[in-house]
Amino acid sequence: MTSTIEPVPDRIDQQQLAQQLVEAARAEGVELVGPGGLLAGLTKTVLETALEAEMSEHLGYEPHDPAGRNGQNSRNGTRSKTVLTEIGPVEIEVPRDRDASFAPVIVRKRQRRLDGIDEIVLSLTARGLTTGEVAAHFEEVYGAKVSKDTISRITDKVVEEMTEWQNRPLDPVYPVIFIDAIHVKVRDGQVTNRPFYVVIGVTVDGRRDVLGIWAGVGGEGAKYWLAVLTEIKNRGTADVCIAVCDGLTGLGDAITTVWPATVVQTCILHLIRNTFRYASRRDWEAMAKDLRPVYTASTEAAAQARYDEFAARWCGQYPAIGTLWTRAWTEFVPFLDYDVEIRRVICSTNAIESLNTRYRRAVRARGHFPTEQAALKCLYLVTRSLDPTGKGKARWSMRWKPALNAFAITFEGRIVASNT
């Protein structure tokens, strides 16, 4: 006798089956979603079928098989259980065995929600929703009541993951790292604005990777920055070619202490934006036109000449701008020595600005945070939303090969191209 094996339905067969189910449901007046809807019924059937298959594997025989009459462990009816799914609450029948040794996997003991629900909660939290707002969302959209405590427990689960992410190994060398800050309101006796620092590294294959997030402390200086950068070094980063940052107290000295060969470069875009802060908006367009020849100059001497012209026109009216550029000049001029491709990498902060926009959106939605840990958790969840695996691969591609060649020549012997 020849046995035949039924082929696995392909995509078209699955679409046809789905269409037939939808048409049958509509013909019978059955809703697609909601309690008692088609999707809830299908979910119930799939889960119960999977649980029965797990029980068969656990006992070693199928339902109604005579092998179950041997006096050993056997099926012992079912118990009802309601689980929360992406389509709302679904009541299922969970099989039991006589000696209570069955430990299902697809819906674990005491599990009241499927794993997809946790991801929805984390996604909503990353967008800045409070626990109360997330609970209201579930009741409104899914018709399911989820307590604030449950939502807090779900988000607390990422703290261990966040700690692992913050301590993961890093690349041995980064051509460029960017150090930026986001200010967050945290209640510490009273609500205060606290800086949280984000470090993004450009890898040798041209991708941008969030290396970590650190909470700032009052009056942070060289000692604070030395601890942060030493942590990055201890995670495997032996060399950084260029560190782009603002003139934060003690940061430049800490960078050259940890990586003596690193060039500390002031962030050009931040310098330009800070320039505009001291000027009336009506002068911004003319000021931007006069400032461009300064940071696009081919040499330091040319930049100095263009800046003198800029200062003669604007610094009398806005003296704080002159003070700003005088203080930043030493860390600005290294930029002028770079190849145009390296300049493009340093100035191309789209990825950073995109990330900061997401951070600020989430922070504004929350208003303030009860603790530093709560703020860190929210910022991490935003980062995680770019990288749901939590493996530190929240990265952005960029035009890279010309820049890689420029880095390899400028920092000879320090950049080793990846084979990937």
Low-confidence stretches: 1-9, 392-396
Determine the mean pLDDT: 77
In DSSP terms (H or I, runs of 4 or more residues), the helix count works out at 16
Structural class: alpha/beta
| Global Rg | 29 Å
Q: Determine the strand fraction and express it as a percent band.
A: 15-25%
Report how far apart the termini are.
Answer: 53 Å
Number of strands: 8
User: How many distinct domains?
Assistant: 3
Main-sheet strand order equals 7-6-3-4-5-8
String of helices and strands: HHEEHHHHEEEHEHEHHHHHHHEH
Query: What helical percentage do the residues reach?
Result: 40-55%
Outline: elongated
Largest sheet, in brief, is: 6 strands, mixed
Keywords:
48% helix; 420 residues; six-stranded mixed β-sheet; two-stranded antiparallel ribbon
